[in-house]
């Protein structure tokens, strides 16, 4: 037994109540009740930890202060010291970021005749996508349809989603799954060869396609191989973008990259730019731990905002209800929603169910917060973290011995390293920052309000309203990544670039100075959270956030 003795008492209660709970059916709550519980307990509705933006397209809107700091940040580039006539890379389509959205866009842009460059912050494929566990939605069964998928997604998003984006996603979904299979993804199959699909919270049909519980790893294996093999796609690793470049026609025309090892800058001129930098979990809004990889620091939001793109639902975050709380080394990591789909229940210190395990994520997260705060029915660890149990062993009782090992091998392995045996023991969970529901405003091809710039994937916003359903984020990235790749390649054939400039950076600096906040704001994009191992003294100095703007060392 790896859990300390003081937790054992509540584990015993959980075990005693299992037989009873197997037959217990807790109904889903009504939409009015959902509204009440979310408003009272969900972190998005807290009054603290938020601030109004003082400048930019979303001026006067309130968002989490960690995000506001990035959006209002100082550029890492001194426009007066950058020689825009010295171009290092000249391409049709520049793709910033190498997760699922970026690599899908790269492949389709290349298929449409573009010369493509992928510039990425860490190694090719280091991303949230590679960590995706549960799977990807697509209505491809005879009893399902994109219309049902559309309705479920709108309901999950509290009907605040942008309808044309949801329809584009639901409609393209079966094609996206097939495309991935054609390029080599091994989706889980039933013995008759049909897709094995799960029903996650908020879905009226089984439509989540997975590769056991390491779906993102399998998909990225294939996408990375494909990108590496194709002519006309180059990639650069450890060179994040730190600023977009404009031209005198008001079009986005490239980006400035920084080499994380040497601190040298590279200039990319591109006829079209696709920002696919993903999310912001590493900003830890409201002080929550996160499921996200180290590169998820809102870089794309900050860069797009500075060139004039507005954000939609920048105030709406997804706190996934099942983030690990124990052991300390795993705090914040994701326990896939597939556990709940297979019957895993959320249980308080007395062995009672907290809510129906198929409530949407924001609702269940709110229930858990209520249980651990107002009701004092959580389990507190020695590190003073609090959580409720997720009863994983129940899955084998429902579906037969061996199911957990077969369906959740990666999860079982992660905890076995700390002597926790998830086949026989529950796991302690609490909400963890997982996803930004909003992002840069875009159309159904992921095009922004600024010509020459596309934002597919988690960096884009509007598809999921104020709450994303499980399996729709990885779908979003393939659908809008592909659409962006196609449109950007088409646009690159026609556009004429003007003279390059960084006037937006100058203007931004002036506005910050006029407001008297330049010295108070950090540099953005953040690139890496300040607790991560820093790549070198020079960038580490930047992260102290005490230096004046414009200090990026020029090559
Ligand atoms: C642990 C985990 C499990 C998940 N499971 C699921 C699931 O089962 N189903 C589902 O639908 N969704 C899931 N999600 C959500 C989903 O995986 C993500 O929303 C989605 O993969 C995001 O894809 P993306 O391509 O937009 O961003 P990412 O995959 O995060 O890729 C962003 C890329 O941009 C790079 N980057 C960032 N900043 C810069 C910069 N300045 N310059 C250059 N490159 C930069 C990053 O390093 C990365 O390569 C999960 C998320 C996590 C964290």
Characterization of this structure:
The chain has helices at 5-16, 18-23, 31-41, 65-71, 100-111, 146-156, 163-183, 215-229, 299-306, 338-341, 361-372, 394-399, 403-407, 409-416, 472-494, 503-515, 537-543; strands at 50-52, 62-64, 74-75, 89-96, 116-119, 136-137, 197-198, 208-209, 233-236, 241-247, 252-258, 265-275, 311-312, 317-324, 345-347, 379-380, 386-391, 427-436, 439-441, 453-454, 460-461, 500-501, 523-524. The chain is an alpha/beta fold. Strands 4, 5, 9, 10, 11, 12, 20 and 22 form an eight-stranded mixed sheet that branches. Strands 14, 15, 16, 17 and 18 form a five-stranded antiparallel sheet that branches. Helix 5 runs parallel beside helix 8 and helix 7 packs across helix 15. The chain is globular and about 70 Å long. The termini are far apart. Mean pLDDT is 93; it is low at 536-555. The structure holds flavin-adenine dinucleotide.
